[in-house]
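Morning F.,

Quick status update on the modeling queue. The single chain you submitted on Monday has been processed. Sequence for confirmation:
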Amino acid sequence: MSSRKRKVVVAEGAPKAIGPYSVAIRTENYIFASGSLGVDPETGEFAAGGIEGQTRQALKNLGEVLKAGGSSLEQVVKTTVFLQDMAEFTLMNAVYAEFFPKESPARSTVEVAALPKAAAVEIEAIALVD
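Structure tokens below.
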């Protein structure tokens, strides 16, 4: 793949995009993953367990998107976490640490007024291609 080309990533194991965007774009060296919500791809509903359940499912979905693009959570270099309520930061952070137990990627976390489908959390990432 030429470094000047991009490829749309299609991830069968993750929820489909809910608007006019791709779940991820792959270039020769990177995957730019759109925000993942804590939606169970089989039911279309949010994972149970509040912020913790949604964070866990969002990261599982993100992992599936990265896998479909030829990468993995281990190759993530940067994430952005969007929280509907910053008071839930500690709960989200504990689950996040399960997925990135060492050499965690760079990260920004911001509180937003609202997220799609009234989600509690959304997580996007940039990862190296394996």
